[in-house]
Specification:
The protein has about 350 residues and is an alpha+beta fold. It has two domains: about 190 residues, FAD/NAD(P)-binding domain (3-Layer(bba) Sandwich), CATH 3.50.50.60; about 140 residues, D-Amino Acid Oxidase, Chain A, domain 2 (2-Layer Sandwich). About 25% of the residues lie in helices and about 30% in strands. The strands form four sheets. Strands 5, 6, 7, 14, 15, 16, 17, 18 and 19 form a nine-stranded mixed beta sheet that branches. Strands 9-2-1-13-21-20 form a six-stranded mixed beta sheet, sandwiched between helices. It is elongated and about 70 Å long. The protein binds flavin-adenine dinucleotide (FAD). Flavin-adenine dinucleotide binds next to helix 1, strand 14 and strand 19.
């Protein structure tokens, strides 16, 4: 018997699990896979960008900064490393392309100094966000798991939830292994599978939409040292240096059923062309590629609340493309909300 069962062992489940355990709740995080962070959490671009996403996401991202700068939990090293974000548009960029992009407008010549790998003369508009950072996702996730365990919480692997019943104010969750665990409150933090898990508990779901995003790594013909995170100002691609490769994304957002998406080869080919047009990276081949699901709730902002109709079901879903960078504030606020009832 626990106080709270959390379904999902990605950043969402472990961050709220930690916050609840730290408040003295008996918590168990249930992860279907044999290891944590196999799905979206292990597939991100690992960036912190304060101006990214809708207003509530930006508020949560900024409110998470102090935690990430000076973590109150035991982590192996710094979680943030400065990595300026440069938004650029080429000759075809719309005249108002910079409208709504948060940062400081910079002249094309200055953009070429900030990223000397931009093709000379290509840039027509640029915006710099020099507060952006590289984010150690594994460091944060493992820190949460460590803190959760240190506070007496548990994490169970190979613990796929396959059924649920409620009686006398308590849930009984059945696992694929045949085990049954009980608690008055269940947190659904199952990412792309959120609605599926919610339906096991008798909810109609919140209308989640998982969307595929592809990332690939390609060798460049020039050294990438010091290159800022560089994004097409009107969307369509971004590129950052990682492990000696140019790590690129087409910024695709194709609806996809919960599962293990494959990278989109056509999108990869299109992105190589676009990045080569904008820069002198000279990308030719693909060394590594993966895809993950960014899961959106209606309205695009995360859902952290009790279900309107089903007693003891707390939703913690819809982290979309910002679930790591806003995790500290989102988990803290969600745990407070959960505990108020
Ligand atoms: C390509 C890409 C780039 C991204 N870049 C960034 C970035 O730079 N910065 C940022 O902040 N965010 C980024 N994101 C978004 C971020 O990765 C997600 O918002 C976040 O990882 C979502 O975490 P989660 O815990 O909700 O989901 P997940 O990590 O998918 O975790 C859900 C877990 O639930 C488990 N589960 C499902 N069903 C069950 C069940 N029945 N029983 C038990 N367990 C179950 C799954 O196995 C899974 O491990 C990116 C995402 C992608 C795909």
């Amino acid at each position: 018997m626990y106080d709270v069962l959390v379904v999902g062992g990605g950043i969402a489940g472990t961050s709220i699990g930690h916050e609840l355990a730290a408040r003295g709740r008996a918590v168990c995080v249930l992860e279907a896979e044999p290891e944590l962070a196999r799905h979206t959490t292990g597939r991100s671009a690992a960036t912190w960008i304060g101006g990214y996403g809708p207003p509530e996401v930006r508020r949560l991202t900024l409110a998470s900064r102090a935690f990430l700068d000076d973590p109150p939990i035991d982590v192996a090293g710094p979680l943030l490393t400065p990595l300026p974000c440069l938004y650029v548009g080429g000759p075809d960029a719309a005249p108002d392309a910079a409208a709504g992009v948060l940062g400081v407008a910079v002249a094309p010549a200055e953009a070429e100094q900030l990223n000397p790998l931009l093709r000379p003369g290509w840039t027509s508009v640029a915006v710099l966000d020099d507060t952006a950072c590289e984010l150690d996702v594994a460091g944060l996730h493992q820190g949460y798991v460590r803190a959760l365990r240190a506070a007496g919480g548990e994490v169970r692997l190979r613990a796929r939830v396959v059924g649920a019943t409620r009686a006398a104010g308590s849930w009984r969750l059945s696992l694929a292994s045949g085990d049954v665990l009980a608690a008055p409150v269940v947190v659904v933090a199952a990412g792309a599978w959120g609605d599926e898990v919610g339906r096991l508990l008798g909810s109609a779901g919140v209308g989640l939409e998982p969307r595929r995003r592809t990332i690939f790594g390609s060798p460049a013909v020039v050294p990438l040292t010091g290159m800022p995170f560089t994004c097409a100002i009107d969307g369509g691609w971004y590129v950052k240096a990682e492990g000696g490769l140019a790590l690129c994304s087409p910024e695709d957002a194709e609806p996809h059923a919960p599962g293990d998406p494959r990278p989109d080869e056509l999108e990869i080919a299109r992105t190589i062309e676009a990045v080569n047009e904008a820069t002198v990276l000279g990308l030719r081949s693909v060394r590594t590629a993966w895809a993950g699901l960014r899961t959106f709730a209606p309205g695009g902002e995360p859902v952290a609340r009790y279900d309107d109709d089903v007693e003891g079901l707390f939703w913690f879903v819809g982290q979309a493309g910002y679930g790591i960078q806003m995790a500290p504030a989102l988990a803290r606020e969600a745990a407070q909300r959960l505990a108020e009832v």
